[in-house]
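Escalated from tier 1: S-adenosylmethionine holo job.
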Amino acid sequence: MADFYVQAGRALQDILARRGSIKAVTAKVGEGKDNARAAGNAKRILALVVNTLSFRSTLQTILTKVDVAAREPKWFGPGSPLNRTKGALQPPAPTLASCILLVLMHDLLFTSRGIQAAKAWPPRERLERHRSQLHAELVRIQLRMGKSHPEELRSGAEERRIAARIPRWCRVNTLRATPDMVVQQLTEQGWTLEETETISKESVFVQSRHVDHVFAFHPGATARLMQTELYKSGALILQDLASCFPAAVLDPLRDESVEVTAMDATSAPGNKTSHLSALMQGHGSRYATLVRMLSRAGCLAREHGNVHPKKLDFLSLAPAEQGAIQYMLLDPSCSGSGIVNRLDYLSGKDDEQDNVEEVDPVEKGSALATRLANLASLQEHMIRHAMTFPGLKRFTYSTCSIHEEENEAVRSKGAGI
Ligand SMILES: C[S@@+](CC[C@H](N)C(=O)[O-])C[C@H]1O[C@@H](n2cnc3c(N)ncnc32)[C@H](O)[C@@H]1O
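Tier 2 regenerated the structure:
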């Protein structure tokens, strides 16, 4: 179990050093030879890391009063042997010992079971020497903030309240089923399609007014939806409404009567690719990366679909050699600032299909400005590159960002409109 806390501390260190998203980092740390065990491990690490981050500001306030690193320098100071663990990042990243301290403090102060490592493990033993003072500080913070329970100190309460009101959007994958078939099966399972603006009950769903074959469900219905055969077979794909617009707008067959070729330039993980594939009704050829998702959605050419995935750097493609490409969906890396964060990973109802790239909700100020400038420069470069494809008739540019710098500004500079 000591190893578990070291792995969780490593994941936390990677996240704080901004080396990846929470999901990506914890999945990587949990990796091992035994897949089932690794998956279980990754889930537990994810839960501990997410919870530690939720209480991080409280934990750090406590540490300003009870400076564990100064009191126990051998295990939590800069010279700790924990900092020499294989793979530990070096400064300017926060030390591994300080990250392990946070995850241990989380379990000590916020769980009834306490730290789940051998009593003799020195970091546990050293930290627990300060247990009563740490608890006293926690109670002081609670009183100061007028909270009756430590759980109320968790940050992000407002975000969670909002998340609980956001519908769960699903797209019918017309390569697997017709919308009528989906409605019929759902109805047989106790769901009701209503013509209403508000989804009052978990069993009610409504049709999108904007994009064909897209339905909105109650946010609390996610787990039940994921149990359905429709979801498991790839006939129903969890995909936010906003993310359904690019393929719907591009719609390569809209004014074509002959076979066409389209490219999804930055396709992984593949939601928009499979949408585009479905809109092309099995015609044409195109590129994508995420074979697994495409296979599940029935899009792969080698499995009688219409997508030829290629793992390539879009920017390294020579447009002159791609004269066949007539339509292109360009959905490049972005800040992810507009992504609806349902926090499903907190409840274990993880949605592997959300096209989350990198989401950093704490990012502010000049760090954000620099990151946006870097992203905008790459995005503009991609638009310019797309526009040199000689056969291109139409392309869409989209991001999951709410920042003008990545949207209107990039479009104006890149495409000159
Ligand atoms: C926002 S995501 C795309 C999401 C995808 N359209 C979907 O709906 O599932 C951007 C993707 O572009 C990929 N990417 C970034 N630069 C690229 C490049 N030069 N060539 C190809 N893909 C790239 C990233 O790795 C990332 O997977």
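The two ends are 58 Å apart (CA to CA).
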